[in-house]
Amino acid sequence: MLKYALITDSVSGLCDVGLGDNETFYKSIGMQKLDVTQGYDGQWYLSEKLKSESYLQQQAEYRKDVFEKEFFQTSLGWIRREVKMKDGSTRNFLSDLLLQIKAGLDMGINVDILTYELPDFTREMDENYIKTLQETKSATQNFIQECLLQTVTDWEG
Predict the structure, then answer these.
(1) pLDDT value of residue 157
(2) CA-to-CA distance for 14 and 43, rounded, in angstroms?
(3) Beta carbons within 10 angstroms of residue 19's beta carbon
(4) Calpha distance 50→95 (Å, rounded)
């Protein structure tokens, strides 16, 4: 989209962008109309630079970092740390749900959990895509141990 902008880094294409409508002011500080796009990090870039291989690689690495903060890996698959319940509330999987899952297993009850496959980080990570990665699996005692170890890792981290 065309906006008044000033290139601050010609290598990455990073720009300062005028977000209002004061064209006279923007021109007075050296801005000109440029084709810019807001990047994954909230900053503005020349649109042509966002198509570069290095930018796409940075974007994939950023998505991977975000994913690994929101999920943790187990032998059953990746587990979302913050779980949305059917009633719309949100619970922390490790601190709010793990002991109930363990109690169910100890009582001989089959407890199903949602796991996720590792995503393709070159794709946009919206909720619709994340839902395609879901699988329902039965919790196991080994899974419980892995989650407890994750809790210790998080605490020590």
Answers:
(1) 58
(2) 7
(3) 8
(4) 39
